[in-house]
Amino acid sequence: MAVTHRLVSSSAGRVHLVEQGSGPLVLLVHGFPESWYSWRHQLPVLAAAGYRAVAVDVRGYGRSSKPADVAAYRMLELVEDNVAVVRALGERTAVIVGHDWGATIAANSALVRPDVFRAVGLLSVPYAPRGGPRPSEIFARMGGAEEFYVSYFQQPGRAEAEIEPDVRGWLAGFYAALSADTMPPADAPDPHFVSTGGTLRDRFPAGRLPAWLSEDDLDVYAAEFERTGMSGALNRYRNVDRDWADLADFDGAPITQPSLFIGGALDASTTWMADAITAYPATLPGLVSSHILDGCGHWIQQERPTQVNDLLTGWLSSLPT
Fold first, then answer.
1. Known catalytic residue at 298
2. Which position among 16, 30, 192, 298 bears the catalytic label?
3. Residue 187 contacts by C-beta under 8 Å, 6 or more apart in sequence?
4. What's the pLDDT tens digit per position in 143-189?
5. Residue from 57, 100, 246, 267 carrying the catalytic annotation
């Protein structure tokens, strides 16, 4: 079954997508620092199961448009990109599935546009409703004398200066730092934090790729970021306070559509946000199933493709058509 690359119109200009199969539309949204390629193991399986599987390059990534304005990467713009893709494909509704930042984009797409997104699957990052203090204030308090990586990413150009001189090496270290088989031991300095005057890379493991990532896979990711630069991807982090303001009308709001959550037991996203998972009866009242995969890190659909594919297809088959 052939894979088709397409460019479709969006408010920023274009969205690049990769499509396989026919049937009900399933929109796949990647996280940082990835691309549509993160769904390479899911596209053929979903297509074989009778779905029209479509993986996008999020705004700022790959062949999708990269506006210069940082504010163009706010959440509501990304939600509208997803709506534009559904419309451009001639569909009225879709199931949306996201990983990492893509999970948050998918959740907000379902929250803001329930008329378009009839079900939502979240990988690695749990749904936590908007609320509390400004996110930048929360992140600034994390880590004590150290700086949380989200805060480190806030200033335009700062993280770019670390990453762009050696994109391939930085990506290899970042992927390894959050993978089950290569992450630092529990008593090592946490790679989510930066020491005073240091860089994130200082804490990355070196010398070994995680089992899920081949040299060729790394080449695909590195080639995209070497061509585009990192600012489009990093600008997502630079909009957390804008998102908090933009989504004020949704403070505390649940997502009521049928939903799925899959997390990795060794992923900081699921351990730090354990309270969000506990709150699912209130925040995801349409939850069909929730799964924590033992011994799995952050890159869940690449670390455990068969297990994730089985959970995804099982959940999709349970949805009303």
1. yes
2. 298
3. none
4. 788 999 999 999 999 999 999 999 999 999 999 999 999 999 999 99
5. 100
